[in-house]
């Protein structure tokens, strides 16, 4: 039984519309110490379809953790977060905000809507790598996910 848990792949949903940022996160996490599968969604509407297993996503596994950008097309990440945390089937999934925003208003609003973490993306490449590695170290290695 214990080996089943150890061998289980962590399902990560990355909701990010910037292809360069998404590619970097995927590259860093593919070499993770923890076996994982990353699904990348580029807009808020599609992200909610994915989370509700609608349409082409009806047979997907639910994510164990969500990395969410705030500035998304079609449906803003702030709205996506609110919908996730108001849905009894989704609200226990940890949501890490990974965004370019650093406004106090965004920080306050996302924590008010029960985000589990708020991280401002660094513009420096090396710092961005360190941030993604710290997400891996904390959320994929140190934390017990639901």
Could you please describe the fold and organization of this structure?
The longest helix is centred in the C-terminal third of the chain and has 18 residues, at 125-142. The chain has helices spanning 2-7, 19-30, 44-51, 77-86, 104-112, 125-142; strands at residues 10-15, 36-41, 65-68, 95-99, 117-120. It has a single domain, classed as Response regulator (Rossmann fold, 3-Layer(aba) Sandwich). Strand 4, helix 5 (104-112) and strand 5 form a beta-alpha-beta unit. It is built from 6 helices and 5 strands, in the order αβαβαβαβαβα. It has a 5-stranded parallel beta sheet, with helices on both faces. Helix 2 packs across helix 6 (125-142). The chain has 146 residues and is α/β, with parallel strands linked by helices. The model is unreliable at 1-6 (pLDDT under 50).
- Strand content range: 15-25%
Strand order of the largest sheet: 2-1-3-4-5
Written as H for each helix and E for each strand, in order along the chain, the element string is HEHEHEHEHEH
Tell me, rounded to a whole number, the average pLDDT.
86
Helix proportion of residues, in percent?
40-55%
Question: Which parts are unreliable, with pLDDT below 50 for 5 consecutive residues or more?
Answer: 1-6
The CATH fourth-level homologous superfamily: Response regulator
Compute the separation of the termini in Å. Answer: 17 Å
Based on DSSP secondary structure assignment, what is the total number of beta strands?
Answer: 5
Shape: globular
Number of helices: 6
Assign the structural class, choosing from mainly alpha, mainly beta, alpha/beta, alpha+beta, or little secondary structure: alpha/beta
| CATH topology type | Rossmann fold
**Rg result:** 15 Å
CATH architecture title: 3-Layer(aba) Sandwich
The main β sheet shows up as: 5 strands, parallel
CATH class category label: Alpha Beta
Number of domains: 1
